[in-house]
Amino acid sequence: MSPLDLSIIDAAAKLRDGSLTSVALTQASLDRIAERDAVYRAFVALDAERALEASAAADREIQAGKDRGPLHGIPIAVKDLIDTAGLRTAYGSRIFEAEVPKEDAEVVRRSKAAGAVILGKLDTYEFGMIGPSFDRPFPPAANPWRPDHFTGGSSSGSAAAVVGGLVRTAISSDTGGSIRSPASYCGVVGLKPSYGTLPKQGAYALARSLDHLGPISATVAEAALTFDVLAGVSEERVAASGKIGRPLDGLRIGYARNWFARDAETMPAIVNRVDDAASQLSLLGVRIEEVELPDAKLFEACGGVIVHAESFALHREQLARSGDLYSEKTFPYFMAGIALDESDLGLALKAAKALATELDATLFSRFDALLTVTTCTTALPFSDFQGAAARWTPMRTMAFNVTGHPALSVPCGFIDGLPVGMQIVGRHGDEATICQIGHGFEQSTDIGSVKPAWR
Fold it and tell me: What's the angle, vertex CA 136, arms to CA 134 and CA 137, rounded to 5?
């Protein structure tokens, strides 16, 4: 068994009892990247020398009794939208292909302060907007389950790296589903926290009103502890990991089945998988009740206006100066914002607040969490995305960027060998309950233990 197959929790225990070193763990990651990443294309920049130096420093500290926490000595990776000092951060674009930041993003600084070993940068759609694109400096990350299929985006490399066994956890970002959709398509765990919970300093902005940072991880427990480190949380009562392992008896979940089961774009087998997951949760003592959410298109229309208006405002000067350097898919998506003005954005932000208030008043007053699908299809083949025209894949993720509620994607089955994800949504600030539910489900099935075969 490779040490890379150990959970962060188990690896951390071995680092502390001396049966494993951070150098050995980090070298194993680098060796596996060298072996597999020509196929997965998850990494766009490696920092092997500094990673081995950091792992050696972690070993010295751990042996001396200095314990920085659960990520001490653990190799992780960072999405290429998030700045890393001294390591190229291109934001997925030709425009910044040679960019080397002088400072770490705050979440990277916190992870280093916690003793994590940064291996390198992971592929992203250009500026986190749209993809997969084939005219960028980096080819799109491949889905380890089926390398001729996409991973979803924009945290494309993060999901590929985690399910491909290159790292156990990655720091990512999510503006309309960019953590949760790749997690769903790749069969890993994606946690989009409550809006504003994690600091965004040093992360490239797409739409500031919707941008979130969070982890993509191999398991719910690992996502929760990664979030806790990045959030600087240590008190159990507010930690995402604070309820991990508690029974689910008596929790109430509103099942938003109407959001996807009636949608013509939803694969019928996905409805069956999420229905099965809801049934499994009920066997664990959860009280499940079907609920009607406002039309998903309302959330998506609202989020679409915000993304286009805010992203165009952020990119206006760069579009004028370097428009020819944007990918052929990204450029028109940014330019769509030219038709929107401040009054349009103001109305959309007002609608977003009203939708969040409605969910709080009508549903989160009655339920501990909501359950719905993450993506309405399994991962699509790259051939569906060839050409300049962008293709939008049906998901149910944008709503919770609009409202800011925390949302967790957890694998809930397979269709023809490709993963399916369900989404668990919680009250503002209550990452702990959705992680409790996700972990309970995960532990009650063997879905999460199934991994793609390396070929």
Answer: 125
